Amino acid sequence: MIPSQINSQTTHLNTTVVRVRFEHLQETLGIGTPQPRLSWLVETSTTGWIQAAYEIEAYTPAGPLYGQTGRIESSDSVLVAWPFTPLSSRQRVAVRVRVWGGGGQVSAWSELAPVEAGLLDPGDWTGRFIRPDWEEDAASPQPGPLLRKEFTLRTSIRQARLYITALGVYEASLNGSTVGDHVMAPGWTSYHHRLRYQAFDVTGLLHEGPNAIGAMLGDGWFRGRLGFGGGRPAIYGDRTALLAQLEVEYTDGVTERIVTDETWRANRGPILTNDIYDGEEYDARLEEPGWPKPAYDDRGWAGAKAVEWNFATLFAPLGPPVRRTQLVAPEAIFLSPSGRTLIDFGQNLVGRLRLTVSGPAGQTIILRHAEVLEDGELGTRPLRHARATDRYTLRGSKNGDQEIWEPRFTFHGFRYAEVEGWPGELKSENIWAVVCHSDMERTGWFDCSDPLINRLHENVVWSMRGNFLDIPTDCPQRDERLGWTGDIQVFSPTASFLFDSAGFLTSWLVDLAAEQKATGVVPFVVPTVMPKPTPPTAAWGDAAVFIPWVLYQRFGDVKILADQFESMCAWVDLIDRIAGKGRLWDQGFQFGDWLDPTAPPEKPADARTPGFIVASAYFARSAEILGQAARVLGRKEEEDRYLALAGEVREAFNREYVTPSGRILSDSATAYALALQFALLPDGSQRQHAGARLVALIRAGGYRISTGFVGTPLICDALCSQGHYAAAFRLLTQRECPSWLYPVTMGATTIWERWDSMLPDGSVNPGEMTSFNHYALGAVADWLHRTVAGLAPGEPGYRCLEIQPRPGGGLSHAAARHSTPYGTAACSWQLTAEDITVEVEVPPNTTARVTLPGKDGAPIKIVSGKHTWTYAYQDPDEKPKQLSLDSTIGELIDDAEAFALVVQAMSEHGTELVGNLLALEQASLRQAVGFLPWGEELLASIAEVLSGLNR
Ligand code: BGC
Fold first, then answer.
1. CA 744 – ligand 1 centroid, Å
2. Residue 229: half-sphere exposure toward Cβ, Cα within 13 Å
3. Pairing of strands 279-283, 389-393
4. How far apart are CA 332 and CA 938, in angstroms?
């Protein structure tokens, strides 16, 4: 029996163990591993608290002890190996933990945390996949069928579990109540390799006597159309099917199973068509009241037929399900210039609409969705082949009852909706936007004194929410919504800070490895849906190596490295074979620095930085990471091999692309950023030179961004690595196009795919590939967290924090907070006229290295708890100096205020002039414009502007 919380040792009342967790899961019913790793948090008021020892106990539901570790001398509290006999399928235990601090006092026991194994063996399934027994043409949209079964239960039900999944997507119900709150279950995985099932506790939905189970099926990713250019339907199969296994346990220990088999009945339901891209059509007149309840007459229904499927593909989820996470009310309902009814939800979001409506039977309401307006009408061109249109036909009722409807098997990316056919006046309380995404726990926050930067950060959060709908997608609205590997490769550090994305990304990486298996090639998108195998391409395929490393760094999960090791090696070995003895990856297809802002709208790969520079730089970095991963795993031979390979690639890179002084071929910001961030330049003076050249380029670009998907996530870190903080802040605070803040000034509420998805005149970029919800360029948020606010992992899992805030950009404060695997970590700073105050919170059982702004010398080592420093401080970048006509153009560009005024004065003489001026960095103002016919006049007005500066 569970012993009482009181025990003989002195308990430390200030120290409690909370949130005992299993693997990376919030929900642990139906866990897919027999030996789930355990993590816990310690809350304590003792500063410098370090765990000296822990003890874990597990109990079976009836009470007896299942296992007991006794006191284990260890400071480990994150992903601790399962210390007991492995669980068998369906086995349930509850676990509790207590800990000892350095002072020898023991905490009280944590609350009991339950965990229950799912069906761990394919042989546990006795149900079969079933489909309705009628013919269907998968090439055209099909109705979503209903499947049902009645059964009788006897008295004394102790508990009931429903294990369920589908080929397609499903919504299940028991006796008329919907089971669970998942959306688009079972989600999208590489189905031929892995199909997730869900487990639900349905005890409360059953009763003695007749019961009924029912399910609706939709096409989802399994049979729906996927891919651009029209896409392809039925990629995984041409029939949707259901697998359900209801296991009812009685108090006498007897278990009864109701499983999908050919005794089930099937019918066409009210869902006429359903498609992720195109939307859902629902005719409520076709609803069959009572069908999911007992005593419904299904004699007119068709039978069910078994479908073959490999049960070895069935897996329990590793991350959270998709759920409805927020309701958003309309901000405005208005008429467009052509007289259509439009709704603005004020936020670009992902999900669908929920209607509350009454009206005549047969009236059809049409809902169209889009992210932007063009000329005051719904801007649907960027959706390409996605119709993004839902249709609801009212059931109607004599007494005017309200009908509530929300599509089930589709989702849209939208801020605006157009409503056609609404009976009567559309009021805002009758329509809501329902936000849907993987229900990850929010773990990261950032805030600073600039509202535009805060909005930028908020946009990153919204783009993550919109694109973490079961897999990490590029975009959520057009005919794509695919797991583009490059996009998540660059965004994974940001994602891992903002939300607990460990389980979500781990699951996706398993798919990546499965898809990669045959050839080592990482497909462009995971799960792959391309009609033909895709070639290896750098930065995209490197997701195989970079993302496991990010998860190891951010969540302290060594197993992810072990599990992905083969996939990581397969990728690097493949590139090694392609590169051959020359050690350069200089052939084949590359996306390169995708969407460099100078690339023409129709040629997104046409970047300043050649794709092969990107490719070899990534090759070197992936080999390096792999060598480091091998070291963590204690695989000495691979460590030596891959670190040596990385060295050889670096050497080849230098030989081919770098001058001895540190200038890099193509002389582009992305090339320097790659070389600096991927440690490709061996010598300090080269790095310094490269840093100086990078600043010069950025300055010559007027501090507008000049990088695409590859350079953008690295550019600020690269500048800071050489001490060019001011330049990084200038890039961050730039508002002109292209820049991070330009979309914010244009009213963006998510991160755009292109720097100029919307052009300065308010029109939509003419490029056919123009999304307003792509997270890749939002990867800068990671730099905001680590450098502007100063909160970074110093050791894997934030076991040691690296606190190194860097004020700048005219900000007077910045703050970041993160729920690390050990608890809350935070760092903030606040400037006053003369002082700075830095506040740091270090979670228990961790330490931190702190480098205070403006203080030289070795970092200070601090222990857990709250720490504050206040001292005299002068912003090192703030050097307002008197500029004159003899100042260089470079000096002028560096002074944001003066530069803006001079540009304004000059644009009166033509904007071309401003462009030319930027290229004359070393010339003085006098030299640059003095020779022009109107030079004297211009110099006079510039001199006036400069002297007007209050310095
Ligand atoms: C996607 C991406 C992706 C790119 C690569 C686009 O269509 O939206 O974001 O990375 O293609 O080609």
1. 22
2. 3
3. parallel
4. 48
Q: Of all atoms in ligand 1, which is nearest to the CA of residue 487? A: 10
355: tokens are: 């209607």
> Which residue is catalytic, options 171, 288, 753, 802?
753
H/E/C letters for each residue in 87-116?
CCCCCEEEEEEEEEECCCCECCCCCCEEEE
Nearest atom in ligand 1 to the alpha carbon of residue 709 is 10
Q: Which of 55, 171, 480, 802 is catalytic?
A: 480
Q: Which atom of ligand 1 is nearest to the CA of 486?
A: 10
Structure tokens at 147: 């499947």
The answer to whether 58 and 93 are in contact (CB under 8 A) is yes
Residue 397: pLDDT band (50, 70, 90) is confident
CB count, 10 Å around CB of 184?
23
Confirm or reject: Cβ of 486 under 6 Å from ligand 1.
yes
**Count of beta carbons in the 10 Å neighbourhood of residue 922:** 10
**What is the arithmetic mean of pLDDT over 279-308?**
97
Predicted local confidence at residue 10, as pLDDT: 53
- 128-160 per-position pLDDT tens digit: 999 999 999 877 889 999 999 999 999 999 999
Main-chain dihedrals φ then ψ at residue 692, nearest 5 degrees: -65, -40
Kindly report the pTM of this predicted structure.
0.95
Is 480 annotated as catalytic? Answer: yes
Look at ligand 1, atom 2, and give the residue with the nearest C-alpha.
Answer: 474
Distance CA 792, CA 632 (A): 20
- 657: tokens are 């692309």
Q: Round the average pLDDT of the chain to a whole number and report it.
A: 95
Q: What percent of the chain has pLDDT over 90?
A: 88
pLDDT band at 939 (very low <50, low <70, confident <90, very high): confident
Mean pLDDT, range 352-359, rounded to an integer: 98
Q: Which helix (H) or strand (E) holds 369?
A: strand 364-370
For a ligand 1 pocket test, name from 226, 490, 594, 606 the mutation site with the most ligand atoms within 8 angstroms of its C-beta: 594
Half-sphere CA count of 513, side-chain side, radius 13 A: 20
Distance 377 CA to ligand 1 centre (A): 27
CB neighbour list of residue 532: distance below 8 Å, 6 or more residues apart: none
Q: What is the DSSP string of 754-809?
A: STTSB-TTSPBPSSS---S---GGGGGHHHIIIIIS-EEESSGGGSEEEE-----T
Cβ 479 under 6 angstroms from ligand 1? no
H/E element, 169: strand 169-174
Tell me the pLDDT tens digit for each residue of 845-902: 999 999 999 998 899 999 999 999 999 998 777 666 788 888 888 888 888 888 888 8
The structure tokens 């190596």 sit at 545
Instruction: Write the pLDDT tens digit of every residue in 75-121.
Output: 999 999 999 999 999 999 999 999 999 888 999 999 999 999 999 99
> Beta strands 195-196 and 314-315: pairing type?
parallel
Instruction: Output the residue whose Cα is nearest ligand 1's atom 4.
Output: 484
